[in-house]
Amino acid sequence: MPVAGRYNVRFMVKSTKTTEKKTPKRDPKVAPLKSKTKAFRTYDQALKYLFEKTDYEKQERLRYNTTTFSLERMERLLALVGNPHKKIDTVHIAGTKGKGSTATMLARMLEANGYDVGLYTSPHVVHLHERIAVNARLITQTEMRELLNRLYAPIEKMAKTDSPTFFEILTALAFLHFVDKQVDIAVIETGMGGRLDSTNVITPKVVGITSLSLDHQNQLGPTLDCIAKEKAGIFKKGVPAVTVSQDPVAMRVLKSEALAVDAPLSVTGTDIDFSHRFETSREHGPHTRICLTTPTSKFEHFRVPLYGEHQAINCGLALAMLDKLREMGFEIDNAKTAEGLYSVSMSGRMEMICNDPRIMIDAAHNAESIKAIIQAVGQNIPYDSMVVIFGCNSDKDIRGMLSMLQYGADKAIFTRSNSPKAVSPQDLAEMYGEVCGKMCQTANSLGEALQLAKCAVGREDLILITGSFYLIGQAKKRFQPDSVGVGQ
C-alpha cells in the first residue's frame, strides 16, 4: 500500500541488487570532495546561509536573461566541485504542467526495476528536502549540512565576482548528493523554462516535455510559441526527446527546435501508440488505464495511480521515456514497472487532507491546471457543492485561472498565501467579477478563509484549496503537521 506523501519512504526491498545490471557503462565514480574546514556546525546555520542567497522564486520583478540565469555561472560552480553532473546518467523533464508527476512516476518505475534513482524536483510543498531524494528517501539534515560545507568555499570564491543563486546552489547540491549515493540514474526536473534553467548543464539519456500552456509569461514570453521555444532549450544533439499532444503552435516550435539540434522527437498518441480510458471498479474506484506500445515495449492496461486525464497523459510520457531507456540497454520488466507505478502517491496532487469537513488540496498554478483539476474532481470525487479557496502569485496567468475556476466553484473564497509575490484577495475578487460576473468572498488569511468555507459546507460538500504551492503548503502544515519528516 502506498505511503502518503509526495516522496514515499522506500516502498520495497530490492531483490535485483545482486544481479548484474546492463546499464550503459560510464566513467568510474571519483571520491567525493571534502571541505577542509567546517563552515557550518549546525543544520540551522547551513540553511540560513542558503536562504540568504538570491532566490528568484520569491522575486516579483525578475529579468530573464543570460546574466540573471547564467549557465556559465552554474558550470563554474560545478567545475569547482568536480563536475558531479558529468558522473551520473540523467533524464531531463521540462514543461508547464505535470513535470513533477511525470518525474516521480518515472523514478518509481525505475526503482522498481532495481535501479538506484535520484529525483530532483521543484518547488516543494512543505519542506525544502522534498526536492532531493534517492530511492524515495529524502535528503537528511546531516547530508544537506555536509554538502553545504563542501560547497561553501567554492561559493565564497565565486561571490567575489558573481555569486551563485539559491537554485544554482541547491542544484549543485543535488548533483553532489546523487554522486555520493552512486545512483544509476537521476531524474531531473527543470525549475523554470528550460534553455536558461540551472539544470540545463546536463547531457541526459532522454528528454521529456510535458503539456505546454501559458505560465511565467513575464519571464518566458507572452505567447505560447515563446514559451515552447524556452522549454525546447533542453533538447540536445542526438538525445531522443518525447512529448505529448500539444497545441499546434507549441508543437510546431518543438519540432522545429528538435530538428535544429538534431534531436529525434517522438509524440505520444502520434509517433507512439498511446491510448487511455476512464473506468470504475469495486477494487480501485474511479481511475484511468493506459496502453502504450512501441517496437520495444508493450505496456497494456496500466492503472494510473493519480486522478485525472492529465495524469494519464503524464503517465504515458513517463512510460515512453522508460521505453527509450530500455532501447539503450536498461533492463525493464513490465510487472515490476507496474508495481513501481502503482506505489506512487504525491503530496499536493488531489490530496484529501481532512475528512470532516472534506478538504482537498491541489497545486494547480496555471489556467490549464485549474481546468484539469476541476474536471478531475468532477469525474472522481462525489460531492454536492464545492467551495474553492484560491490564492496565487502575481507572475501567473491570473485571468486565465479565474476563468477556469468559475466552472467548478459553487462558491469562491480568495485569500493570500505567504508568498512575497502573492496577489491580494481584493484584487483577485475584483478580477473574478470582471471575468465571470459571479459573487465571491475574500479572506486575509488561510485560517479566515477556512472559517468562511466551513460555514458554507455540509456533509456531502467539498472544500478545494488551490492556486499556489505556497497556499497548499500552508494547508498541509495546518492539517498534517507531521506528514513530512526529515531525518537527522
Main features:
Protein-Tyrosine Phosphatase, Chain A, 6-stranded mixed beta sheet, 2 domains, 488 residues, disordered N terminus, globular, 17 strands, 8-stranded mixed beta sheet, 36% helix, alpha/beta, 15 helices, UDP-N-acetylmuramoyl-L-alanine:D-glutamate ligase
Largest sheet, described in full?
Answer: 8 strands, mixed
Report how far apart the termini are.
26 Å
Mean pLDDT: 88
The domain count comes to 2
What is the fold named in CATH at topology level of the largest domain? UDP-N-acetylmuramoyl-L-alanine:D-glutamate ligase
Shape: globular
Query: What's the name of the CATH homologous superfamily of the largest domain?
Result: Mur-like, catalytic domain
Q: Which CATH-level-2 architecture of the largest domain?
A: 3-Layer(aba) Sandwich
What would you note in describing this structure?
The structure is a single chain. The protein is of the alpha/beta class and 488 residues long. It contains 15 helices and 17 strands. Helices cover 36% and strands 16% of the residues. Strands 4-3-2-5-1-6-7-8 form an eight-stranded mixed β-sheet, sandwiched between helices. Strands 12-13-17-14-15-16 form a six-stranded mixed β-sheet. Helix 7 packs parallel to helix 8. The longest helix has 19 residues, at 141-159. The radius of gyration is 22 Å and the shape is globular.
Quick overview:
This protein is an alpha/beta fold and 488 residues long. It has helices spanning 43-51, 71-80, 99-112, 141-159, 166-180, 217-220, 224-231, 248-260, 309-327, 334-342, 367-380, 398-405, 425-436, 446-456, 469-479; strands at residues 90-94, 117-120, 132-134, 137-138, 185-189, 206-209, 241-243, 265-267, 273-281, 285-293, 298-303, 351-355, 358-362, 386-390, 411-414, 441-442, 462-466.
